[in-house]
Amino acid sequence: MRLTTKWLLVYLLPLVGTLLIYCHADKQLNQNSATLPYKNLHDTVKYVGAETCKTCHQNIYDSFMRTGMGQSFHFATQAKSAAQFGKHIAVYDSINNLHYYPFWRQDSLFIAEYRLLGKDTLFKTEQYIRYIIGSGQHTNSHIIDDNGHLYQAPITFYTQKGIWDLAPGFEGGFSSRFNRIIGLECMSCHNALPDFDLQSENKFHQVPLGISCERCHGPGEVHVHEKMRGLMVDTATQIDYTIVNPRKLPTRELQMNVCQRCHLQGISVLKEGKDFPDFKPGMPLTEVMDIFLPEFDGNQTKFIMASQAHRLTKSACYQKSNMTCLSCHNPHVSVKETPLQTFNNACINCHNPKQNQPDCTLPLPQRTAKNQNNCSGCHMQVSGSIDIPHVTIHDHYIRKPINESDRQKVENFIGLIAATGGNPGAHTKAKAYLHYFESYTASPAFLDSALALLSVSTQPASKTQDAYIHAYYLQQNYTQITQLAAKLNPQAITDPWTAYRTGEAFMQTNKPDLATPFLAKAVTLLPLMPDFALKLSICYMQQQQFAEAKTTLEQLIKNHPNYALAYSNLGFAESNLGNFTLAQQLYLKALALNPMGEQAMLNLAALHLLQLNTAEAKKTLARLLLINPQNQTAQTLWKQLVKQ
């Protein structure tokens, strides 16, 4: 989806309304986007960009750009960064024995990765950081741009504590170094909608700089065209259906869906044929996806960071009134710039003793001493989350305060719930458990739950086979996958990951000839996914098809010029084709890109031995064993060379 820019927007009344909570039960309507009269919900309507909105709504634009949403994504500049820097600031990954050091070189931000042996540096690499993601209110994370492919750097600055540490999900030995992809799901919430390459997992032709107006108001092209033609609407008495005003959507569910799209992050299961940018304000979120969250028993204090919209719905305040996120928040104004009394007024509208409504039971002097008589300070406790370290937020589950001893009680996982409502089928729930296993907790019980749900799914086998293969792949039950694959035509597969997982299963069961058509299909479906092409090259080489492997790897390097493993594999192919000099150059290129590349070092040592250059082989193996003394192949080769 390519964003376009129009030069003029002439009329739209501000969307800032009075903060009110109507204390009566909400009457939900069963209304889908096809029945709504909004003109900007059609797929052909284009986004115009925040700069276009700015031409008429300068004040709102200026205010919004100071919010966390407006500052969510930008180039890595010293003005954008909220981090602290200095020669003593470094992060140590003790499990992987790697150090990370952020620094500025003139106006450019870099992160150095290195390993020490005593006081000596075994190796050091530097990665240029192109973008900073995060407003700085909680964190600054860092994005690498490699030929349009975006990756997250392994360290984050945690603003509230003023410290650098491993990025969320990189702890506990799960660091992917500089290889964690930033895909469309991530980008579609942390930024305005980008121009994404559907042949990839993480390539963007263009990325905006910050969440824009149209994420909440929908595409603006129709609105711009009608206002340019002089077609005005008195929004004091009517609804302007060329643009979405979330406050005026006909049901609370639709209003909440606008916020839930990004403040209800958990396990998103897309509907068939849908993708993340398909949701537009005014649509029911369940037309595009179902979102699942983990539920815990006890005091229910555990939650995912970006689940505020769901936590709110657990509150009696929400359940007994018509409140929405907009009852307390004005999205155009930063929370930092919002007076405390604004939030208190939202509470007082319902909890007003003058109207015989329940008041706070805590005496006023204690309220004033503890929280400046601030309702949210007590009833929305500051808490951490289960997925982001070093960060605290106000828990949006509004309730009486829970004391610290109760907060420390063990809470057991109950299951995944569909936070977007409805009753998703067993097949959808199964996919949610598979994603939860991959993204949060790799417990075998979740795979068992997924398989149990698939066994009772009413979907035909043609629909469930992808999920079965996914589950068996995560179980490493490759034999079961190969048995299912006997009924599969590789050319009929439409999901690239199903093709890849099936090919990998045949590789793991020593049947590369049967793996080839599945891996080739995966590459065809997702040609810019480097791991697919790399695996196909290995499959070719296991069958002594080095020319085919070479062709595959050369195309891979063309798309990913900094992919170290591709150079190592291409060197191996060239060596087997008799091109020893070129092979050595390719191994050295791989090691320049990744000094920790153990396979490249093994290949280089083997090449030296093939050329009867024992001295260089020993040097290469010695270097490898310094980096990883536990590498058994290197140990075996070293022992053989020492005996000679």
Question: How would the blueprint of this fold be written?
Answer:
Elements: H1 50-54, H2 58-64, E1 73-75, E2 91-93, E3 98-105, E4 108-117, E5 120-129, E6 131-133, E7 139-146, E8 149-152, E9 155-158, E10 163-166, E11 180-181, H3 184-190, E12 195-196, E13 204-206, H4 214-217, H5 221-228, H6 252-263, E14 267-270, E15 289-296, H7 308-313, H8 316-319, H9 340-348, H10 364-371, H11 375-379, E16 382-383, E17 393-394, H12 404-407, E18 413-418, H13 426-439, H14 444-455, H15 461-475, H16 478-485, H17 496-508, H18 512-525, H19 530-542, H20 546-559, H21 564-576, H22 580-593, H23 598-610, H24 614-627, H25 632-643
Antiparallel strand pairs: 1-6, 2-3, 3-4, 4-5, 6-7, 7-8, 7-9, 8-11, 9-10, 12-13, 14-15, 15-18, 16-17
Helix pairs in contact: 13-14, 13-15, 14-15, 15-16, 15-17, 16-17, 17-18, 18-19, 19-20, 19-21, 20-21, 21-22, 21-23, 22-23, 23-24, 24-25
Q: Can you describe this structure?
A:
The radius of gyration is 28 Å and the shape is globular. It has 25 helices and 18 strands. The protein has three domains: 140 residues, no CATH class; 171 residues, no CATH class; 168 residues, Serine Threonine Protein Phosphatase 5, Tetratricopeptide repeat. With 644 residues, the chain is of the alpha+beta class. The longest helix is centred in the C-terminal third of the chain and has 15 residues.
